[in-house]
Design goal:
Blueprint (H helix, E strand, L loop, with lengths): L9 E12 L2 E11 L3 E5 L4 H10 L7 E6 L2 E2 L4 H6 L1 E4 L11 H11 L5 H10 L13 H12 L6 E5 L7 H13 L3 E6 L2 H7 L4
Parallel strand pairs: 3-8, 6-7, 7-8
Antiparallel strand pairs: 1-2, 1-4, 4-5
Length: 203
Amino acid sequence: SMSLDYSVENAIEVKGLNKHYKGFSLQDVTFQVPTGQVTGFIGQNGAGKSTTIKAILNMLKRDDGKITIFGADNVEEEFNIKENVGVVFDDIGFHPNMKAKHIDKILKGMYKNWDSKVFFEYFDRMDLPRNKRIKDYSRGMQMKLQIATALSHHAKLLIMDEPDVFLDFENINNLCRLINTYQGTMLVITHNRYLLNHCFNKI
C-alpha cells in the first residue's frame, strides 16, 4: 500500500500510550521496534502487555498517545496495516468446528496476499492434522495453527505474544528456526529465557 513505508527506521513506534481501566492503568508507554529486526521483549504478564498489543492493533480505544506502523497512523490506516501484519495471540478466534480447508477459505477472503500453498506447507511442517476440527486440537496445536496463519499472508511485520507457551522443547526449536528465517520485522513477547537467548539478535 502507498501509505506504509517499509524503509522507515522503526516498524512500530509507540509514543505516550495511556489507557485507564478501573484498578489498572497503562501510563506513558513509549518504545520502538526497529525495522527488519527481531525484537524480543520479556513480557510482564497481565493487563499491561495485552493492552499494549491491542492498542497497536487498534482493538481498543486508547486515552492518549500515538502509534505508527511503518510510518502510518494505526487508526487512520488500520485496514492497510492489518493486511501487512501477522499476529499470534492466545485467543484463537476461529470457530471450533473448522478444519484447515475452512480456515484457508476464510483467510483467502480476508487478505489479498493470502498464500494457500504456504499455509498448507506450514501445516505439514508443523505436523498439524488437516482433517481435524480445531476443537480437537491441543493448546500447542492451536498455537502452531496461529503461527501458520500469521506467516501465510506475506506479512511485513509479525507480532507474537507468548508463542511458546504451549509448545514442548522440540516445537520451541522449530519456532526458533522459523523466527530466524523470517525476512521481515518481528516483535516477540515471551517469558521463555531459552527462546530469548537462542532466537533473537536483539533484546
